[in-house]
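Minimal example, chain plus adenosine-5'-triphosphate.
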Amino acid sequence: MRGATEPLLRVEGLTVNYPGGRAGWLGRERLLVHAVDDVSFTISQGETLGLVGETGSGKTTTGRAVLRRVPLTSGRIWFDGHDITEIGGRELRRLRARMQLVFQDPYASLNPRMTVGDIVAEPLVVHHAVQGRHELRERVRELLRLVGLPPDAASRYPMAFSGGQRQRIGIARALALRPDLVVADEPVSALDVSIRAQVVNLMQDLQEQLGLAYLFIAHDLAVVRHISHRVAIMYAGRIVELAGRDDIYERPLHPYTRALLSAVPIPDPATQRERRRVVLRGEIPSPIRPPAGCRFHTRCPLAEARCRVERPPLVERHPGHRVACWLA
Ligand SMILES: Nc1ncnc2c1ncn2[C@@H]1O[C@H](COP(=O)(O)OP(=O)(O)OP(=O)(O)O)[C@@H](O)[C@H]1O
Ligand code: SF4
Ligand SMILES: [Mg+2]
């Protein structure tokens, strides 16, 4: 079992390569997509870790690997004090009940031919988590209430709901088995800007009520600001900075984090005017042949010779503030 100081989730050296086809003469060279490379982090009970990075940086792969939904190339994962890297069968099914996924697209992720009641009930039925139809109906009703949907939602189809309401249905379903950890993969990116805050606030309320931990994935820093206790910044498959929320937003150390932040609007117009917008030049590097040394060197305004050769390790510069940059 997990000790009092042990985090709920511990990920060490997580690496995921996907097969990337073939190249070279007669296709003899087998290519690999280096999606996630040597990623380590922890999440405590009741905590939200925001995971932020551009498209293709490996966020979804990290989230899915944590849930053991993609094969790991290397690394280890502990959940609630148990090493879950290699578990399978019934043990893995039991674990999956305690770690759930909320998807980005509430339009594509809900089966349009099932009623909302059946969608929310499905995990309870599959995992034999309730006894009899009465308990099932009560539990579905309770879950719908928890996410702010009316009880009569159960008999309707997803089509009848707006994007924000559909995401509430997805959240109700994810919470059905009373998980400890929810991986939320860009849960508000597909939603109208005006309703994003409502869904984020709901997730925050649920966290307080139920003691949930979140891995909250987003591609911009504005979305995760209010919900995150700590934030990890990913670039080209690696975590380049990981710190408490205030350190990330007020004292960022990595040039990439600074560039991301410069695109986030600040409510105070004076501060906003003073701040220089850092525009990142260059392409996101190919995950098939990622740059040597610091993977950010092809776009970094501060890059020097060493950056092109030696990989900067993720080291703690201040208590709880880790950064991977030779100059930070
Ligand atoms: N099944 C797969 N097979 C091969 N390559 C894959 C597979 N899934 C993802 N990739 C590649 O791995 C890299 C990381 O993808 P991932 O989906 O984890 O990134 P992401 O940060 O979630 O991006 P986005 O913001 O677009 O969702 C990308 O280059 C992607 O094309
Ligand atoms: S290690 Fe070098 S290239 Fe990488 S972020 Fe730091 S200064 Fe830029
Ligand atoms: Mg993704």
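The longest strand covers residues 9-23. Residues 255, 294, 296-297, 300, 302-303, 307, 312, 325-327 surround iron/sulfur cluster (ligand 2) (CB under 6 Å).
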